[in-house]
Amino acid sequence: MHETDFIQLADCLFKPFPTKEVDFLYKQLEQAKRNSDLHLDNLREFIPKSNWARYFSSLVDCEDTFLRKRWTELYDLRCLVAHNNLMRKSDFDRIVTLISEIKPKLEKAIGNLDKVKVPEQEKENLAENIVANLSNPKIKFTSYFLRIIEYLWNKGHLREVTTSDLLTNLGAGAYGNYNKLRLKPWSLIEDSDKSNDKRAIRLTEKGKNFAQGLLKIPEEISKSTASDEWEASPVCREILITDVNN
After folding, report:
1. What does DSSP assign to residue 184?
2. Comparing C-alpha atoms, which of 104, 14, 8, 6 is closest to residue 60?
3. What does pTM read for this prediction?
4. Mean pLDDT along residues 11-15
5. Last residue of one domain, picked from the residues 115, 135, 155
6. pLDDT digits (tens, 9 = 90+) for 98-134
7. In what order do the strands lie in the sheet with 138-140?
8. Taking every pair of C-alpha atoms in the chain, what is the biggest distance, in angstroms?
9. Considering 135, 166, 196, which residue would you say is the last residue of a domain?
10. Of 220, 214, 223, nearest to 235 (Cα)?
């Protein structure tokens, strides 16, 4: 776990998953002859819950959504540091605030590890979930990607912008992550051939179509362990730009 990537650890802790595959739910529904054949406790096992909700929420007074939101924002800011990008004082102040909100919750969780009880029947499923999150890096199309696309599209008045312009107008999340929009199978942005000495980006034709709601893309992409190429994550949905929460 000491080699786990910052955002992968968030998935291990805060990403919801069911303890039973949905195929088993379909099978139970098909076999049921009456309502009494379906047991509520068994059905609840199909509700996706994060490891935090399962094992820590009773020990730490904090919802997983509270931590995941702040962890994701801290990851965006962490990317500024990791990639030697510019950081404003407001970014630094926000980092300090986020750490002050997250750190006490994690310290309390660590202090209560001896009280965490994982039922025997859940251990194998838990191990498989953690291995899946650690061995297969994933990127989800989130709100800061949406802001980049909308900013470049500019309601049809296309922009070609420098990366420093992204930082000034869209913030650290967009600035630290815009390059991921180049990855296949998204391929939504490219370098501009603008004639100046500063690097600029623009939408690809695919990006323009996506911005207009004419094209669907995978909501999540992941790196294949076999080919080391980025591809649509298994069982992820195809989304239009209107499906993304701003």
Report:
1. T
2. 104
3. 0.56
4. 82
5. 135
6. 999 999 999 999 999 899 888 777 777 777 667 666 6
7. 138-140, 220-223, 230-232
8. 72
9. 135
10. 220
